[in-house]
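Render this sequence as a predicted structure.
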Amino acid sequence: MSIQKAGQGEIPVRHRKEISVNTYFSKKDMKRIYFIGLALLAGMVLSLESYGQSTKYISQFSHFQSYFNPGLTGYEGSTIRGFVRNQWSGFEGAPRTYYFSTELDFGELSGESDPELTGKNAVSLNLLHDTYGAFRETELMLNYASRIRLTEKHNLRLGAGVSYQSIRLDGNSLTTEEQNDPTLGQYVGQFSNQNIVDFNLGIALTHAKYYVSYGMHRVNGGKISSGDEFMDGYPAASMVQAGFREAISPNLSVITNVFYRSQKDLPDLKEFNLKVLLMNKIWVGGGHRIDFATNLQVGVLTNKLRIGYVYEFPMGGSYQLPGQIHEFSAVFNLFRDNQPTENRPVTMW
């Protein structure tokens, strides 16, 4: 039970493995093994993202409220919004998300003197493009919201929307695990498309300082579809959003938001962020997606434009890849300025 080397004594068995590794693998080889292992891990994680549905993360969710809830369409007036999110950069097939929307408040369009209180209707057009692994998903959403004034400062907002999703599968990019899947495996080596039409609903209670809302995507569960059926259904998703903002002084405001999403085939998502707005020009803050990631945020406000940047890093036990995650956002006001008013002491969420 020992190894004998010429001119030396016996070497204990417990050192055999160490000798073998040092003998047959150089440092360069070990680096190659590390990167191969990391690539395999990337494939496994991306395949988990690809099965069923992908989880669409938006760290600056408070800037894109109407995407999650049609009832919040036009909550910040008529705007043009967009963001770009690059996740796990450096890995082939890593998730990338692009979003663009236009919201129109009819009160502002008609020139009402105080549309924040007197306006009643708003519409929005939202476009989201998401790539993850072998999948390319494009979602087009049309929302309508109606506002009911409850008190001098409280409004009830009701919204509905129709969504069209086009999902493209590249059978040449399937992972080994996906190729062995009985549903996806039949599309190896070919391109396939699936189209889904569904409906979204939302309700929100809003105030100049806070809001609480509930929204639902795909109320019909993705039952209206055409093309190839490489996805088994598309379960409804429920989302709760809430926020609070307060002007501590003319040069300092505090803003906090929380978000919760639940969908049958995905883990529940719980996150929050906290921002400090300085002189109504610069904001800094951070956020946390429970059990997944933490982020740092910074942004700039001009008279009409809001630009934000997020750097996100995953938690150690989240099983997400350690690559860099960047998110850029922009919001342009079509009519109102980013200036505090009596009815809006803080100009952003």
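Summary. Helices lie at 16-24, 27-50, 65-68, 106-109, 115-118, 176-179. The chain has one domain: 14-333.
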